[in-house]
Write a structure and sequence with these properties.
The complex is a heterodimer of chains A (about 850) and B (about 450). In chain A, strands 3-4-2-1-7-10-11-9 form an eight-stranded mixed sheet, sandwiched between helices. In chain A, strands 19, 29, 30, 31, 32, 33, 34 and 35 form an eight-stranded mixed sheet that branches. In chain A, helix 3 packs antiparallel against helix 4 (about 70-90). Chain A is globular, with a radius of gyration of 33 Å. Chain A has about 850 residues and is an alpha/beta fold. Chain A contains 30 helices and 35 strands. Chain B folds into two domains: about 5-280, Rossmann fold; about 290-425, no CATH class. In chain B, about 40% of the residues lie in helices and about 15% in strands. In chain B, strands 4-1-2-3-7-6-5-8-11 form a nine-stranded mixed sheet, with helices on both faces. In chain B, strands 9-10 form a two-stranded antiparallel ribbon. In chain B, a hairpin with a 2-residue loop joins strand 9 (about 245) and strand 10. In chain B, helix 3 runs antiparallel to helix 9 (about 260-275), helix 5 crosses helix 10 and helix 15 crosses helix 16 (about 405-410). Classes of the chains: A alpha/beta (about 850), B alpha/beta (about 450). At the A-B interface, helix 14, helix 15, strand 15, helix 27 and helix 28 of A face helix 7, helix 11 and helix 13 of B.
Chain lengths: ~850, ~450
């Protein structure tokens, strides 16, 4: 293609592309900018490039602007800034330094300006603007040198700021706003001057012609202003992530890229927590109906997030879940008359008087509760105290803090309410202070105690996907998970064992189904993985997860003790390990069971006062371990939460002293403390918390030798979930152990060792089509594997007979049990299933066969090993 | 080899103490059972200056005697023997007092009478010759514990321009983070208890609270001579001197070794027997807990690192709940004592929750108020300080509706003497102190 072909026509559209600090700080990054601009230009577009200052420069300029009266410091900073740009000039291989020198001399002059001594706002704005003036100058020279003729545009000539009502002087100069509307004359005038332009983000002029600054997120906002002025075909914000995500990827690696949002949704997400886009930049493009995209400079092949007008036909879906911490609620109880006229006016006037701006509001007949966002002002000054005193004149005030506001965003929120039932169940044990649902139907915000909110967003995000309130499978809205894009190393990329041994499994399946098959090599490998951890001193395998004898033998051979919860389990375990490796941790067991376990020499765990109160003699002279309830339970489902007052496990902390006295009275030595708060936990911080709390508690005892922090080591059920990071776990356990070297550390995993080692093979009996649903019925169901019905557990299901064929049919995989909950998996995309096909249900090695029943008098699946 | 029950021992022996290459080894034994060796490591210890050698030996001897309390209490034998000879009267009195009062809570909890057992052997010899002036460098060692008190001292010493080193004993990431936040140079002394102590615990040893501040004080006196400091500045305040309860006719004070009586005895002993120019003092002595919290409130830099909680105190976590358990008397007290002086949102950020709006904490706060409960065995302020703080909060609209503040107004307040609830008198510095003249200017900051 020659350059004439690619020259834009007279009415060619405009594309505005914006690059932040890291994108303009190295020569390779400038090459990327050049390539992107050239691509658009080659497509016949006129291009306006908006740039930020080089990384770190704005902070330095800010330091100059704030170093009132400290001329020495200002000059030192000026020298650093100068040197940075000289280095960039050299790196870019530029020759003509006249323009660069002009701006650098401006900097030198401003640093010694008389106005500097008093930090005049107009002077500060001029100082701050220099970063972009310098970077755009370097960029213009470099791009032109690369053969992309680029014109330098002074942003201040085109962006005219207007003071907002009530805006103070600081805001007028350093957080200015620019009203913009498409200006065809400007677009035409510029079109005459050239095809590719570069300009500065972050700045504008005021009506007096002075330089002003747009404030936080300023360069994005500049791009949006120019997009609106030029009525661009598109504004692209190029950054270092692929776009906006359905949750903060740092706490939810499974967060999905949002491929498409409407302006209002994007605004809501940006306002309620996402940092990638400043909320201020959405209004200008929405008003001008200009689409805006967020894209990753390092991954230009990704389309990123496209933001545009709402599509009427789109199915409602939650798009994102976000949280804001440090929220303060002010609850005001009216003490005046019912429906007192002017009550709200009285109340809000007082907030205004103290300069506090309200975010959420909810009201009842006699109560109004509002939220305040966190601010330095609230923490460092007495403003809240003063506000409360003023409010107390008209109402009863209660300050509720610190709170976390969790917001679900998505158009059509109200129509999603039925699906949200299961999601809202996550708020079960939390104190909810306020619920707010905006009348524009875009969001649902729930405010809870901050202390209880840890881990809530990842849980909610998973629940939203599970209930399909967040339609993650809809490619029109959602892209890949963040972990898939950026953290490929953290999740398992190895093929599962059952895939490499597919032929063998098909043969086994041909002999008899249903059937559990366990891969002993996988069990051994998981056991070795845990034994390789340095911090734990002893490991016990919770044998209730899988008590198949060959499996137990492999685990015992790796040096694990066996944790038993019944005499039956003790019987099996005692055949495999010596008595000192037996741990008996029953719950509400009868007296003879304890007596028998002690007689056998097993270590016994108590979790109630009752045994010592009523059967003290049984334990006289023995050592016991005490299981306590540390409070908040955790886990992937209600029924696997084993902490909190609603849980039947563990001794309440306020009964510990009584337990100690009973133990002393009966000469029982408490030699260990144990807590187990839940299952399927992937967050390393959980064990840190349990360990440090138990160790601190142990100091109140005199004979504690061991801290047993239980198990619960999670095994992600979906491929895109991050694996438990064992190295991180070991490091955080080691840190606590260093502080409490006197205690041995014990752990008792179950599921971690065996879940992935086991699969359930079942054969298709019948298929059925009913309305839009396709059912594939197999020869066993909840009688063999109850976890999907009991815990809503998700197990991967594949058609082993047709593995690799296109998965084009959506199935409900069900069993033959007369129970509507007999569903092994819903909405699974599989190759078309036929009678006799062998289906494989993965991760069935834990709590599969051990929880099987003969319900309906159907014999559950047998067990074999490979 | 399993050890025998130390409670059956006849004699507790101070076997010997030596020092080499930055490591002090303190050796003890029950009867003729195996030797228990505690090691204390002084990092990058300089060579000991000859003119300080005699003083150092004396200080090490005292450290040996004081640190023995951890082992002595495991068996509480009827006889104490010092293998290298009996003590002079001043030393023996100091140790008798320390073991008797410092183990007061231990005795109460275990139902023991210690007065029969604790007699340090004393020789009829005259008091040793007065200690000389050593010309120690004029600078201060400040032990930092991770709680508010030593951080207040750090700020005061910095403002005063005192050349100060922050010291901490043991291995605590939380304290290390606090030391880093002070911006002062740090010195981390480590201490390793004899591992056999844990074996003794298995064999049935007595257990309970020991006067750890006394041990740290003795370690710091040794450190001052080794590294060259003329002042050891602790941060114990006035309320540390008040008793927790009476038991068997004797006052039992959980924090006796943080009290004025011990400070005076040890300071006098150091000046008489170690070095006439070595000061041992507590900078916050004239202050109440409330006065200390008011000073603490002035500085924001420690909000995200400090913790006074004794349950979670060794671990540094990113979230407030990692540092504050929210259940123990220390958490209750520090929350209450800071509340009148810091903006509510800041306090709630520090703790991550509002303990005064949690009805399940009622009993804990009642104990602080000494309302239907006795003061807890913890280093917390006096009952009248807690009562005054809650009274102040009950007057503040941003606090008065919180569950426990509202309860205080309706249930507790009517039963209290209204004339004794003012906050202001409790903030006035009062009582004796032993702050050396060089640092006396700091006391002005209290007013």
């Amino acid at each position: 293609m020659n350059s004439l072909d690619s020259a834009p026509r007279a009415h060619a559209g405009w594309i505005v592309i914006k690059f932040g600090g890291t994108s303009v700080s190295t020569r390779p990054r400038w090459d990327t900018i050049c390539r992107i601009a050239r691509d658009w230009h080659a497509q016949g577009k006129r291009v306006l490039i908006v740039v930020s200052a080089l990384s770190g420069i704005t902070d330095k300029l800010k330091a100059v602007a704030e170093a009132a009266g400290d001329r020495v410091r200002r000059e030192a900073l000026q020298v650093e800034i100068h040197a940075r740009h000289e280095a960039m000039f050299t790196e870019l291989g530029l020759a003509d330094r006249a323009t660069l020198d002009y701006w650098l001399s401006r900097l030198a002059a401003l640093a010694v300006d008389a106005r500097a001594e008093t930090s005049q706002l107009a002077w500060q704005a001029e100082v701050l603007a220099l970063g972009e003036q310098l970077s755009s100058t370097l960029g213009q020279a470099y791009l032109s040198a690369q053969g992309l003729a680029t014109r330098w545009l002074d942003a201040r000539e085109h962006l005219l700021a207007q003071a907002l009502p009530n805006q103070n002087a600081w805001g007028c100069y350093l957080s200015a706003s620019v009203p913009t509307a498409p200006d065809a004359a400007l677009a035409a005038a510029l079109a005459k001057q050239g095809e590719v332009f570069i300009t500065q983000g972050f700045m504008a002029r005021n009506t007096a012609g002075e330089t002003v600054i747009l404030g936080r997120g300023g360069s994005d906002t500049s791009a949006a202003y120019f997009g609106a002025l030029l009525k661009a075909e598109k504004v692209e914000i190029w950054t270092d992530v692929a776009g906006m995500f359905s949750a903060n990827p740092r706490i939810v690696p499974a967060a999905r890229l949002l491929s498409r949002l409407d302006y209002e949704e994007a605004q809501e997400i940006a306002t309620t927590g996402a940092k990638v886009l400043h909320p201020r930049c959405l209004n200008p493009v929405r008003e001008a109906s200009v689409p805006l995209a967020v894209r990753d400079t390092n991954r230009p092949e990704l389309a990123g997030t496209e933001i545009g007008a709402s599509v009427a036909a789109a199915a409602p879906s939650v798009k994102a879940v976000s949280e804001r911490r440090g929220i303060t609620l002010i609850s005001m109880e009216s003490i005046g008359m019912w429906q007192q006229v002017g009550f709200l006016a009285d109340v809000f006037e007082r907030f205004k008087r103290h300069g506090l701006s309200i975010d959420l509001i909810s009201s009842a007949e006699t109560n109004v509760t509002v939220s305040l966002d966190p601010s330095e002002n609230l923490v460092n000054s007495d403003v809240l105290s003063a506000l409360a005193a003023d409010l107390a004149e008209v109402c009863r005030v209660k300050v509720i803090a610190p709170c976390t506001a969790v917001t679900l965003v998505g158009r059509g929120m109200r129509s999603l309410l039925p699906r949200l039932a299961g999601v809202l169940a996550e708020f079960d044990l939390l104190r909810v202070h306020l619920v707010s649902q905006s009348s524009n139907n875009l969001n649902l915000t729930i405010v809870v105690d901050e202390a209880a909110a840890t881990g809530l967003v990842p849980t909610l995000h998973a629940a939203l996907i599970k209930t399909e309130a967040l339609r993650a499978e809809d490619p029109a809205v959602f892209g890949p998970a963040w972990s898939e894009l950026y953290a490929a190393a953290t999740h398992n990329t190895e093929p599962p064992w059952w895939l490499t041994r597919r032929e063998e499994l098909l043969e086994l399946g041909a002999q008899a189904t249903p059937r559990y098959v366990y891969d002993l090599a996988t069990v051994r490998e998981r056991a070795r993985r845990l034994r390789a951890l340095s911090a734990p001193d002893r490991w016990f395998y919770a044998l209730k997860a899988n008590s198949q004898r060959d499996v137990l033998q492999v685990i015992a051979a790796q040096g694990f003790g066996l944790e038993c919860v019944s005499p039956g389990e003790l019987d099996i375990a005692a055949e495999l390990v010596p008595a000192e490796r037996l741990l008996f941790t029953p719950n509400f067991a009868a007296q003879p069971e304890y007596a028998a376990a002690l007689a056998r020499g097993a270590r016994v765990t108590l979790d109630n006062l009752h045994p010592l109160q009523h059967w003290g003699e049984t334990f006289r002279g023995h050592e016991v371990i005490l299981r306590v309830d540390l409070g908040a339970g955790r886990g992937h489902h209600d029924k696997v939460r084993t902490g909190g007052a609603g849980s039947k496990f563990g001794l309440s902390l306020d009964q510990i002293e009584e337990f100690r006295q009973l133990a002393r009275r009966h000469d029982v030595a408490v030699i260990g403390l144990h807590a187990h708060l839940g299952s399927g936990i992937l967050d390393v911080g959980h064990w840190r918390e349990v360990y440090s709390q138990l160790a601190a508690l142990a100091q109140r005892f005199t004979r504690i030798e061991a801290i047993n922090i239980g198990g619960g080591l999670g095994v992600p059920s979906r491929a895109d979930e991050a694996q438990l990071d064992l190295d991180a776990l070991d490091a955080c356990l080691a840190e606590i152990k260093q502080a409490y070297p006197q205690f041995q550390l014990w752990m008792e995993p179950g599921r971690y060792l065996v879940a992935e080692a086991g699969v359930l093979l079942a054969r298709v009996n019948q298929v059925k089509r009913k309305g839009e649903y396709c059912y594939a019925g197999v020869d066993t169901g909840m009688n063999s594997l109850i976890r999907p019905a009991l815990y809503d557990a998700w197990h991967e299901i594949v058609n082993l007979s047709r593995y690799g064929e296109p998965a084009d049919t959506l199935y409900q995989i069900v069993g033959p049990i007369c129970e509507s909950g007999d569903v092994l998996g819903s909405n699974r995309r599989l190759p078309e299933c036929r009678e006799g096909d062998l289906l494989l249900i993965a991760q069935a090695g834990a709590y599969g066969a051990t929880m099987a029943s003969q319900y309906n008098l159907r014999i559950p699946a047998g067990e074999s090993v490979v | 080899m399993p050890l025998s029950d130390p409670r059956k021992a006849e004699v507790f022996r101070f076997v010997r103490a030596d020092y080499a290459d930055g490591e002090a080894r303190l050796v003890y034994a029950f009867d003729d059972d195996l030797e228990l060796v505690e090691r204390i490591v002084f990092p990058q210890a300089p060579a000991l200056l000859p003119e300080r050698a005699a003083a150092f030996t004396t200080a090490l001897k005292l450290l040996h005697l004081i640190a023995g309390v951890s082992y002595y209490k495991a068996g509480v034998p009827r006889q104490i023997r010092i293998d290298h000879g009996a003590l002079d009267a001043q030393t023996a009195e100091l140790l008798d007092a320390l073991y008797l009062h410092g183990l007061g809570e231990f005795a109460y909890q275990n139902g023991l009478d210690l007065s029969e057992c604790i007699h340090f052997p004393r020789a009829g010899t005259a008091a040793p010759a007065p200690a000389p002036v050593l010309g120690l460098p004029t600078r201060s060692l400040l032990p930092v514990g991770g709680g508010k008190d030593s951080l207040v001292s750090a700020e005061l010493l910095k403002q005063h321009g005192e050349n100060t080193t922050a010291v901490w004993v043991g291995n605590s990431p939380l304290i290390a983070a606090c030391v880093a936040a002070t911006g002062l140079p740090g010195l981390n002394i480590t201490r390793q208890l004899a591992p056999e102590l844990f074996e003794y615990n298995k064999a049935g040893a007595w257990n309970g609270h020991i006067p750890v501040t006394a041990i740290n004080s003795a370690i710091l006196v040794v450190a001052a001579l080794l590294y060259g400091y003329d002042t050891v500045v602790f941060s114990n305040e006035r309320s540390a001197s008040s008793a927790t309860l009476e038991y068997d006719g004797r006052a039992v004070n959980h924090q006796w070794s943080k009290g004025w009586e011990f400070e005076q005895m040890l300071a006098a002993w150091v000046r008489a027997q170690v070095a006439a120019d070595l000061n041992y003092c507590s900078l916050l002595r004239p202050l109440s807990e409330l006065a200390v919290t008011r000073l603490f409130a002035r500085e924001l830099r420690y909000d995200a690192v400090f913790s006074s909680c004794n349950r979670n105190f060794r671990i540094l976590g990113p979230r407030p709940v990692d540092r504050w358990c929210g259940q123990c008397p220390k958490c209750h007290f520090v929350f209450l004592a800071l509340a009148p002086f810091v903006p509510k949102p800041r306090l709630l950020n520090i703790f991550g929750r509002n303990l005064l709006d949690d009805e399940s904490q009622q009993q804990g706060f009642d104990a602080l108020l000494e309302f239907r409960e006795h003061k807890p065995f913890e280093c917390v302020g006096e009952g009248r300080e807690s009562r005054a703080a809650l009274q102040a909060l009950s007057q503040r609209p941003e606090w008065r509706e919180d569950a426990l503040v509202a309860r205080f107004r309706s249930v507790v307040l009517p039963q209290l003497d209204a004339t004794e609830l003012a906050l202001e008198p409790l903030l006035q510095p009062a009582g004796p102190h032993a702050v050396p003249p060089r640092l006396a200017g700091i006391l002005d900051a209290y007013r």
